[in-house]
Structures are given as structure tokens and as C-alpha cells.
Amino acid sequence: MNKSNRRQFMQTIQGAAGASLALPLFESLAGAAATKLSSKAAKPPVRMAIYYVPMGVIRRGFFPGESETEIPKFVSEPKAKSLIEYKVGIRKLQSLTATQKPLESVRDKVTFVSGLNRTYRHGSDVHAQCGSCFLSSATGETVPSSIYPLNRTFDHVVGDSIGGETPFRTFELSCNSHKDNKESIYFDNISWYGTGHVATSIRDPRQAYDRLFGTKRMSLQRDITDLVLQDARSLQRKLGRVDREKFEEYFEGVRSIERQMDKLSKLKSNLKGVEGVNVPDSTESLMPRGEYIRLMGDLMIAAFQAGLTNVATMMIGPERWNTPYMFEGLFDKPVSHHVMSHNQKQFIGELLKIDKFYMEQFVYLVQRMAAVREFDGSTLLDNMIFTYGSGLGDGATHQYTDLPIIVAGGGGGRLQQGMHLHCAEGTPLSNLWLTQARALGLKGDRFADSLRVETDLLK
User: Fold this and answer.
1) Beta partners for 168?
2) What spatial distance separates the first Cα and last Cα of the chain, rounded to whole Å?
């Protein structure tokens, strides 16, 4: 679908106070032109999203065969090697490890990629590099004046190619709304326009909602679905059965987001009326962490559904911050992920729970994508490349080798699924980004320090 076609058939519904809600493409409304558009020659766009988890993982929980290996001490070994040798190549994804267990319901929709390494450059903190350079890994000669191997990140390179047909070339989200920052921007951002130029992430769900649906300047303090409700009811009567179900799914998804944000606003309002209570600024001080992550993810999915963006990033937490987080259902008080990661022997049980918790939120989003239907009968997940990953292979060793990577989605039918690919020793992470670029239709034989396309990942 070219740029003019996508914009021509982008549907909206109007309402009170000038409100308008962007909609997915409905074949019922566009008549013969849409029929032509949705023929075999035209397919839904392939989208890309990143789900970045901080502080690496506990290897014995994530990687096959390492469950009985020695628990590492706090060291700095950027080039530490995996404790287990796997056979190089691609094979069926067999048994899932403890941390991977939540993937069981979507096993045939994901591929586990192991053996990938990332560029390390002496002179700056390991945590700062692992977050800021996860999507870059530039070669030294590319950015000689910087202590970070950081150039234009992969999401923006992709956005330059497939994002121009959407209102938002890229869409950056962060699930860290705390204001007690004692670190530089390099610890808390994975998306960059270029060396030293950060692409600021949205951290407040209300701000993300306002940006997507244009409600910020509305004088009426009402949800957009209320403002367009009358027109929405009229629209439903014009839709065929399949499109009507698709509309109800999307509209209810946006309403669910609004209900969560309204609940948050009401809680803040009630707390302001309690004497002696300071209302916290951060979203996660008022909302359970898992609910916060899922809400931000739901906003991302709504943006994909409505054709507002084709490229998004989610940084689930910052690197090295010692700010405690409340992981609901895991602990009875807030804990510092970073502090615990340096003492795995003492906190191994707690850290394994956190890793699994983050995987559960990832799986929730994968399942949501699988439930979203496209105009041609496929799903959003079929046309998605959704990557879970971290810039550290282990939070104690601080290694940049053998990173934890899961790729979900079919990439428009171009990616293998339900597999485990183990890459040859010395394979750079940027090979994965180059491979994904190829699946997304980008030209070029190199990205950052890549060596080749990992053809085993492609169909």
C-alpha cells in the first residue's frame, strides 16, 4: 500500500468539540477502491516494535541448559562467553525454560535467537551503552568523537522507510515515569535520531493517548469515545459483519484504555483531598507495574490498528536506576531490580520472578496482537516483527555477549516462527536488525556493524 493510498482510505469518525477518532481500514466503507486495495496484490503493512527489558536476565532461568550452572558474582566481563555450547543453526523450539514458560501459548508465533553479541566501547558505563546502543551498535569509525557506539537507531532507520505513510513516523514509549533521575539520558532511552540526539519517549499514558487521538486541546473533559459515540453508532450500521466485529474490537479497546486512565485520574483526585498526603507524580506510584506496562502496550497496539504508526519502541525500565518498583503479585514492597541484579546469590529467586513477570507482559501484548484482525483476514501479529530483548546477557557479569532475544510475529509471512536459531560465535546483534530490515522491505546490505543477513530467520 503506497503513501497516498493509505492516507486516502484512513477512516475517521467525528464527534462533539471537534473530536475525531482514527479508525482501522474498513473494506465496507471504501467501496470498489478498497476492494482493489485489498486484493491479493495489496496486503496490510508490516510493522515493527521493540520491547526492551533492563538489567539483562538470569541466565539459568532464560537459557536452555544453564539451570544448574554456577550463579555468577558481580563482575564486569563484557565479553564473557556462554556456559553452554549449542549447535549452530535453526531448529524447532522445543522445551521452554522457566523464564520462557509464559511463551507456551504463543510458542508457534515466536522464535528464540541466541548467540548474538553487541558492540562494546571502553570509556562509558556498561548500563548506559546497553540501553542507548541496543538498536545501534555503530562501528567505532562511524562515531569517532563519541564514547558510545551510538548512531541513528534501527527504529528510525526503519521509520524513514515505512513510517512516512503514517501520522507518526515512529512512536516511542517508556514505562518509567519516576522523576528521581540521577543518571544521564543514556541509561533511560533506547531510541535516538543520531549521536547525542535522543528521541524523547512518552511516559504518561494520558499524554500518549492525547498525542494519538488529539484530545489535548479539548475544552470538554470527556473521553474521545464518548464524544464520537453518536457517529460511531451510525457508522456501525453501514459496516458488514466482519468489519462490524473489527470496529467493535477496536472501539472497545480504546474504551478500555480510557477506563483505566479515568480510574487513575479519579485516584489522583481523591488523594488530593486527603490532608497530609502528597500525590506522587509518577504513574507507577499509583498504578500496579504490570497494569502500567499493559496499558502502554495497549496504546501502542491501538496506534498500529488505526494506522497511526508502523514503528514503535517500548523501554520497559531504565538501566542502572536504583529506584524501587512495586511488582504486584511478586513482593509485598517495592524492590530495586538493579541492586538485586548485582547480588544474584542472595536474590536469585526474586530476580527469576522479575524476569518471568516481564515475559508475561510481553506475552500479553503478543496475544493482543494475535487477536487483532486485518482487512485481509490476517492478524496484526501476522504482519508484525515484535522483538523482546536486552542489551545485557546477564545483569551480574554485565556481558554484551549471548543476549536474550525473542522475536514474535510473522513479518508479513517473511519470518520463520516456532524456531530456535543459535548464531555462530561472534555474530553481532546488528545482523538481526539487518535481517529484520530485509523482511520489512528495506534495501541495503549493512546496518551498523552487521556482517550478513541471517537467512535462516527468513522464509
Assistant:
1) 309
2) 22
- Provide the domain count of the chain: 1
Residue 412 lies in a domain: yes
Distance CA 204, CA 92 (A): 40
Gap between the Cα atoms of 1 and 441, Å rounded:
12
Distance CA 295, CA 300 (A): 9
- Look up the CATH number of the domain holding residue 448: 3.40.720
Q: Tell me if 32 is assigned to some domain.
A: no
Q: Determine, yes or no, domain membership for 374.
A: yes
* Cell reading at 142: 562511524
**Is the torsion defined by CA of 50, 56, 60, 63 positive or negative?**
positive
Any domain includes 372: yes
Average pLDDT over residues 400-421: 98
For the whole model, what pTM was predicted?
A: 0.90
Mean pLDDT estimate for the chain: 87
Of the CA atoms within 13 Å of residue 286, those in its CB half-sphere come to 23
Average pLDDT (165-172) is 94
Residues of the domain holding 422: 47-212+276-457
Q: How confident is the model at residue 30 (pLDDT cuts 50, 70, 90)?
A: low
Within 8 A by CB and 6+ apart from 116, the residues are 402, 403, 405, 423, 427, 428, 429, 431, 432
